[in-house]
Design a protein that fits this description.
This protein is an alpha/beta fold and 414 residues long. Helix content is 40%, strand content 14%. The protein folds into 2 domains: 250 residues, Type I PLP-dependent aspartate aminotransferase-like (Major domain) (Aspartate Aminotransferase, domain 2, 3-Layer(aba) Sandwich), CATH 3.40.640; 136 residues, Aspartate Aminotransferase, domain 1 (Alpha-Beta Complex). The strands form 2 sheets. It has a 7-stranded mixed sheet, sandwiched between helices. Strands 8-9-12-11-10 form a 5-stranded mixed sheet. Bound molecules: pyridoxal-5'-phosphate (PLP). Pyridoxal-5'-phosphate (PLP) binds next to helix 5.
Amino acid sequence: MSTTHMTKPTDNQALSKQQPQAPEPQISTLSVHGGELRQKPGDSITDPIFCASTYTFADTQSVIDFIDQKQPREEYGRYGNPGERVAERKLAALEGGEMAVLFSSGMAAIVGLLMAKLNAGDEVIFFDECYHRSREFCSKHLSRFGVKTVQVRACDYDAMEAAITPKTRLLISESPTNPHLSIVDLDRFAQIGADRGVETLIDATLATPFNLRPIDAGVDYVLHSVTKYLAGHNDLLAGVVVGSAEKMEPVRNLRGIMGAVNSPQNCYLLCRGLKTFELRMQRHNENGQRVAEFLESHPRVEKVFYPGLESHKYHDIARRQMRGYGGLVTFLIKDADWRATADIVDAVRIPRIAPSLGGVESLIEQPLVMSYYQCTPEDRRAYGITDNMIRMSCGIENPDDLVADLAQALDTTV
Ligand SMILES: *Cc1c(COP(=O)(O)O)cnc(C)c1O
């Protein structure tokens, strides 16, 4: 069987032989064809789902040849599945990285990467605006294995540099951050790591490879909750880490031991969702911008956090390094306590009340209630979560409908 799947940057040979002058395939082409065999089993245009927990060997010599790495093939489901390999090659191609390792969720990817890379006595430094479970894993669990985590203010590069010691192994940030949508200057972040010999990790879940290219900026590892924009349909959980083959090999090995893998059906759903990745991102970007501009102009709105607005603290960096600004919009309601804010959330008709983001259906939530209800007021203040904050993930609905819906929710709850 020919392996004419498209990968980037190591383009496959059959493809380049046919089209010596062909330019590097772009995102939409990669999301449709990237990582796939040109001729698939059963001559099917779609990738078949291999419902196999294990794979058979013709004879003992085949087993020995496999162990001696003479014969690449599948062995056992925890180490890989043909559909999972397609998804991994597609994600690596989209990200412009050498190797992607797929996990069963974004959190499994974070835990898998950190457990593969850190030893007792090591230190990690991360910007403090981040997904609350990532913070919890570092502060409550890595600490039990003798790894020290240091938090510094988001986008305070001097503080990050000052916190580096000979024991520092990893610098971690999200970009954009959640829910404040702060933008990390990737060139600067990657340069600190390179200068000080410390590896760097960006959780680019909110940006996706359509809007942000961390590997081009020199970041070592890019991580995504694939659950969000990449899968895109609010119907599956997955996570991925992308990096060089050399750096990712230990991560793949640990995943084979952890067992945080996806079912063959889940991999199929993911590849299916990825086919429309660029189309969806274009609409998410358009809807995010429209909704943010509408909210900023509304008298009941005190402040809008959206990197595509000129009023955003990091708009200049965002404009320089991002293609679009995504579908997530965070805003504060003027003179509203938590209940008046909840009334607006309850009054919208199109977005559904739910955690998560990045799917075709718009979602809305009040971070105070959804994610930080059990926190102390002091912790909420430290994380910048106010009672009057609403976070909306714009789906791919019609932008006029979304704006009209928000208008009626704001105007009927005064
Ligand atoms: C959702 C999310 C995660 C966790 O991903 P899961 O797929 O839910 O495990 C990590 N980082 C960010 C930025 C997220 O939004």
